[in-house]
Amino acid sequence: MLENVMEFYRNIPPKQCASCGDKMEEQAEAYGTVCDNCKTNG
Fold first, then answer.
1. What are the residue ranges spanned by the domains of the chain?
2. Is the pTM value of this prediction over 0.90?
3. Which of 7, 14, 35, 36 lies 20 to 30 Å from 29 when distance is taken between CA atoms?
4. What is the DSSP letter of 21?
């Protein structure tokens, strides 16, 4: 069963910015959906 859970987390796609679509660096305890570049320029 633990193998199925690990496989699930490995298959999650990278987090993307909701504004520009660029891949975002994921951080623990961070729930933002917009990258830093879009925050400062948008």
1. 14-42
2. no
3. 7
4. -
Q: What is the dihedral of CA 33, 25, 16, 1, to 10 degrees?
A: -100
19 residue type, one letter: S
- Rounded-to-5 percentages of helix, strand, coil across the chain: 35, 5, 60
Scan for tokens 């975002």, then name that residue: 24
**How far is the C-alpha of 4 from the C-alpha of 37, rounded, in Å?**
36
- Contacts made by residues 3-9, CB under 8 angstroms, sequence distance 24+: none
Query: Mean per-residue pLDDT for 20-42?
Result: 86
